[in-house]
Amino acid sequence: MSVPPAPGAQRPGGRTARVREAVLQAAGDALAADGFEALDLADIARRADVGKTTVYRRWGSSGALAADLLADMAEQSLPRTDTGSLRTDLRANARLVVKTLADPRQSRLFKALIAASLCNDQAAQALHRFYAVRIEEWAGCVRDAATRGEVPAGTDPHAVVAAVSAPLYYALLNTGRPLTDADADRAAAAAAAAAQAGVWARQEADGS
Question: SUPFAM superfamilies of this UniProt entry (predicted)?
């Protein structure tokens, strides 16, 4: 599963789009710096140089703001790679995850958003949607691999893609050591090998 670039990249749009962009950039900065518990709408309005009333009217709560930030990140996510090989497609996915999670701001931001999802229902639902969108985007590489005969028919594409990023997020949250491209390559190779061995192939009921 790929992880998107930092939110707030310049995009065309009117005043409403510019306000959203400024507020979400400020929210991302605040989350990365101080975590979800310190996220305050009045402070975000000040940081973004936007009227406090506008921020409260549009977002209403810290949970809703974090949810919109995740939606924005999904909107800006890069499309999947198509190299013609499952192993190299998954390696590109894993390296993109590592590149993002190795970035100081982005790693802190994702930790804050994951923490927010544990204590706020809006943030939790938004995080689930975010990962569902990103996994579906990359699931195409597994479907293509099945068409080419690289993996068994019926291989669950979402399970394969999730298996690539799972050890990388585990390392981010539990080991504290810097992630490297070697970590990415191992995660991708393990997921590809498991998929080719039929680990995630759906089995038809045989009555046994």
Answer: Homeodomain-like, Tetracyclin repressor-like, C-terminal domain
Phi, psi of 54 (to 5 degrees): -60, -45
pLDDT digits (tens, 9 = 90+) for 125-177: 999 999 999 999 999 999 999 999 999 999 999 999 999 999 999 998 888 78
User: Which of 147, 160, 207 lies closest to 187, judged by CA?
Assistant: 160
3-state SS assignment for residue 200: coil
What is the dotted CATH code of the domain comprising 81-196?
Answer: 1.10.357.10
- Determine the topology of domain 15-73 in CATH: Arc Repressor Mutant, subunit A (1.10.10)
Bridge partners of 155, per DSSP, are: 201
Residue 155: phi and psi, rounded to 5, are -65, 130
* pTM for this entry: 0.82
Give CATH 1.10.357.10 domain extents, the chain: 81-196
